[in-house]
Amino acid sequence: MIIKGNVHLFGDDVDTDAIIPGAYLKTTDPYELASHCMAGIDENFPKKVKEGDIIVAGENFGCGSSREQAPISIKYTGIKAIVAESFARIFYRNCINIGLIPITCKGINKEIQNGDSIEIDLENKKITVNGKKLNCNVPKGIEWEILSAGGLVNYAKMNKE
User: Fold this and answer.
1) Count of H helices and E strands in the chain?
2) Distance CA 153, CA 17 (A)
3) Which InterPro entries does this one have (predicted)?
């Protein structure tokens, strides 16, 4: 599977309160959550995203509380994947559970600028940015099976015995 999109660049230690501030957690509507995605950093973020775009971030992306609304808000803006130097563990797993692709790629922030075009080749575990190929760690095994099913709920439904 190949994903192509424009980059929305964020730094280190982006926490879940910045991704979806607590004031917006009064709804379960994923599109309403998406309309406030990244409000703690850039209130115009949802208007900038085009379907298929990709977040690139630094270290410890998704730190803070374990709220599942954070990756849900990102997914429903149209973002297809998040590529980060590293992820907070629970945020990473929440991405898998809802079908949002998290990819770890050391050194990516040195190779990319906001607005650059990026291509992710999930099968070959390569990211191409500005003509340069980077080796990355994509989910595999059960994580990839869950993502391929569209998330944990769909995976469970498909594997009911």
Assistant:
1) 7, 7
2) 25
3) Aconitase/3IPM_dehydase_swvl, AconitaseA/IPMdHydase_ssu_swvl, IPMI_Swivel, LeuD, LeuD_type2/HacB/DmdB
pTM: 0.93
Cα(16)–Cα(71) distance, integer angstroms: 9
Interior/surface letters 118-138, b for 16+ CB within 10 angstroms, e for the rest? bebbbeeebbebeeeebebeb
Amino acid at 100: L
**3-state DSSP call for residue 126?**
strand
DSSP 63: B
Confidence of residue 109 (pLDDT cuts 50, 70, 90): confident
- Residue ranges and CATH numbers for the domains of the chain are 2-158 (3.20.19.10)
CA–CA dist 13, 4 (Å, integer): 25
**CB–CB of 76/27 below 8 Å?**
no
